[in-house]
Amino acid sequence: MRSLILGGARSGKSALAERLATQSGLEVIYIATAEAGDAEMQARIEQHRMRRPAHWRTVECRRELAATLLHEAAPTRCLLVDCLTLWLSNLLCDADAAALDTEQHALLQALPDLRGRLILVSNEVGQGVVPMGELSRRFVDTAGRLHQALAAQCEQVLWVAAGLPLALKGDRP
To answer: 48 an active-site residue?
Structure first.
């Protein structure tokens, strides 16, 4: 089962993903894509760490997400990726356009081969005005296209607002 959980900042999407991972009854591997570039981000990361059960293993993954998923996936595991938009930011800031395309393609190609449970968390960033800067527009466009491609491959797509999930595809949790 593959789930994509979308929502705005502080919508409750990570908490929902963590709840679903716990309910899976499987060994949970938390795949963290954030990097603590400043004190505020370090505080956010620490809040997420404190919320997670101590027995969950955390794997940090800045760029090569498909390879990490393929390495960690197993029928007895639930992989929770939080979050795809930070992963895209890492790629946009660190890599050239070809590497960005390669990594996204690798992710989409890997999904059908993954065994076990997969929960992907991502910020929906296309709800507002079109950003003025080229990099910001590229980020919004890239995230939107990736979300559409992932939604096509996931059995469950959830939208979270105010901590409440709405099923866009598949069953409501």
So the answer is: yes
- Out of 48, 55, 105, 147, pick the active-site residue: 48
Residue with tokens 């607002």: 161
The residue to which tokens 């491609």 are assigned: 149
128: pLDDT strictly greater than 90: no
CB 155 within 8 A of CB 1: yes
pLDDT at res. 95 = 65
Parent domain of 85: 2-169
73 Cβ contact partners less than 8 Å away, ≥ 6 residues apart = 79, 113, 114, 115, 116, 118
Give the pairing type, strands 156-161 and 2-7. parallel
pLDDT at 44: 82
Please give the Cα distance from 11 to 90 (Å, whole number): 22
User: Which DSSP state fits 113?
Assistant: G
CB 80 within 8 A of CB 129: no
144, containing H or E segment: helix 134-153
CATH code, domain with 147:
3.40.50.300
Return the pLDDT at 109. Answer: 98
Arithmetic mean of pLDDT, 8-33: 96
**33 DSSP assignment:** -
CA-to-CA distance for 35 and 156, rounded, in angstroms? Answer: 28
